[in-house]
UniProtKB/TrEMBL annotation:
Transmembrane segments: 556-574, 586-604, 616-634, 777-797
A Pfam family hit: Lig_chan-Glu_bd
Protein's job: Glutamate-gated receptor that probably acts as non-selective cation channel.
Keywords from the named record: Glycoprotein, Ion channel, Ion transport, Ligand-gated ion channel, Membrane, Receptor, Signal, Transmembrane, Transmembrane helix, Transport
GO function term, MF aspect, one: ligand-gated monoatomic ion channel activity
Signal peptide positions on this chain: 1-19
Protein name: Glutamate receptor
Keyword 4Fe-4S: no
Protein family per UniProt: Belongs to the glutamate-gated ion channel (TC 1.A.10.1) family.
PANTHER family named in the record: IONOTROPIC GLUTAMATE RECEPTOR
InterPro entries, A to Z: ANF_lig-bd_rcpt, Glu/Gly-bd, Ionotropic_Glu_rcpt, Iontro_rcpt_C, Iontropic_Glu_rcpt_pln
Amino acid sequence: MEILVSLSIFALLFSGVVADSNNIVFEEVRVGLVVDLGSIQGKILKTSISLALSDFYRVNNSYRTRVSVLARDSQGDPLLALAAAKDLLQTGKVKAIVGAESLQEAKLLAAISEKAKVPVISTLVPNTLSLNKYNHFIQWTYDITSEAKGITSLIQELNLKSIVVIYEDVDDCREGLQVLVDHFQDGGVYIDRTTSFLESSSEEDYMVYQLRKLKSARAAVFVVHMSEMLVSRLFQCADKLGMIEEGYVWILTARTMNNFHNLDGFAVRSMQGVIGFRSYIPVSEQVMNFTSRLRQLMVDDDTAQIETEHFSVVISVWAHDIACILATAVENIWLRASNESNLLETIKQSGFKGLSHGDMQIVGNKYLLGTFEIVNMVGTWVSRIGLWSCYNLCGRRRVIVSSINELETIIWPGGSGRIPRHRFLEKNSERKLLRVLVTSRNNFPHLVAVRPDPETGLNIVSGFCIEVFKASIAPFNYELEFIPYNRSSNYDDLANELFTQRDKYDAAVGDITITYNRSLYVDFTLPYTEMGVGVLTVKKKKESMWTFFDPLDKSLWLATGAFFILTGFVVWLVERAVNPEFQGSWGQQIGMILWFGFSTIVFAHREKLQKMSSKFVVIVWVFVVLILTSSYSANLTSTKTISRIQYSELLRNPSQYRMLRTNSTLNTFDDYVQALRDGTISYLISEIPYLNVFLGHYPGVFEMLGRDTTSNGFGFMFQKGSGLAPNVSREIVKLRSSRMLKDMEKRWFQELDSFGKPHIDWSENDDAFNRLTIHELGGLFVIVGVSHALVLALHLYQTRRDISRALWESRLFTKLQNFSGFYK
């Protein structure tokens, strides 16, 4: 207590006006400290900064500025921390703030620092991207990227086959997890599965349940990334389940090990053989002297009993260096007579090398320590077994882990000194079970089909998607259990099912398109099919030299020709008696009948008609010819251009056309084949894999008009964070490069249907459904026929006497009369 009183008096002297016999005036610069003064971290920070400033000004007694610390107790509450920071800025007039013990506190203090333009420095918040947007927030912490590389290197050197990642489901841990997963994948470390816990909701029973599932799944290597309080409960549960024994490997990140002092004795005793990464502070006389005096101060103050020294070394050294850098920056500003608004830049430009001896790397507003100790829990002690750094800053006395031989002897769980191997896989060559959901709509059995075995009653799965999945998962020695999914036809629901039922399912297979929304809940492999959407239609027959006959069917051609001749005959019959142009020899008259009838096609008849009845016939017939020629021209034009027009319209507004997945009446492959065959639909828009089924089975019938890369193809779904997705993706790449994937496509997309359905011959399929028929234009011929009949009837009535006289005078009539008299 006496030492603390002395320190307080010394601090008051800093804020005083007189410092020595020469009455030198010191300028006081206030710095705020916002921490939970009831926690060990808060007490260490406060005492370390006070002791560091005392040492600094004792050495630099000529400095004209003095930093004084105004401490506020946040009690671990982010809102109280915010209120304390506001009070320090408004009433305390502080020029900088040191604090923030959690990510929530950091975000609040960072936001207020942006408005006040006052730097906030934190040593207790892990490195996180969410704070990068705050220019006045300085993070003083370890480099999680370097740590991730170190853990990856350690796993590789230990030759561990697969791992399970256990993490705390909070924002900063999730960011750190993503960095770990990325480096694991880059380093070829297979992540078997991930498990998350929440400190607020993870009761002991739930932890035991989750750990028991991992044990049942034969998981043996664990990487743990969570807070020390949650780790304490985790290891006590693991110890109860017998998971801290020979054959298991536990690796802890610096998130836990830098706060190791908070673990209780029960947790420490259950962590025997655990390996951990913690921030490295080089041992020096200055560090030992400072931490020894700090520990003695805290013991004398009876604020804490620190049984382990590593936490006090890490946090106290960081606090020491922060205090010294602040004091140096303040003095530099005073010497330049500059404005305090430059304090942030002056801090970042400070060349002060504190007890960290330059190990800090300045990246933006972050001071990152990239060197780590690799430690081993033995008894109640933490033994250093090696060092890791990716900064190449190691002096002669340091050892960088580049091979397993450079690590000290490790005592593993169970007390063994031999590197554990995955005992469960080695024992009896047992295979792990992979529970796979399978889409079971069976709309396209060539892609995926699920049908019961009539003998065993078990489900048999087949199809292109299934064959690719089995081939790509085969190298990983899994026993596959396929479970049909028929709850919904929406594959977004399938992704959600896989996400929410993590304890029931491990993967999902089928005609599943890779989409952004689904990727938020699951991990996709690389696509194993072609990407994009295409437009399918019936292939048009090759055009011939007789294409001009196509607009009309045969019956309409015959009827039109017959009425041309009939019209010529009716006009000739009516006009013949009074019009010289329709007279002459029989050959001339027959020619006139044909000429006059067919010349009406182009309205080229020049003969002047004398009778009104013949004119009526011609007027009616010309009207019909006009409609026939217009219809012929329109249909001929449409036959050549309608496909292009429809395709262009389809590209502009595809929602007007029937889509494969959204159609309510067409469900199966055969339904769509028949719909395209009979013209119910003209175009089919769908993803390329579906269209390949049509093209493969009926290559001479269908054709693809175009495609657009708006779809990502089919992929396999795995649990979020599972290492299977990248590993299976690599196998898919192998299958594609070795052409095995191409061979599978040929087997499933061949012309003969794999399910016994005969090949359909559409060689006679043409555009008959677009031709005009006599039924469609029958009304015109009825009108013409009636008009012709009326004119003929009128003509016969008008010429009845002449007809009777002609018959009387004809030789035929005379012969008939003589013949009748012969029998009298």
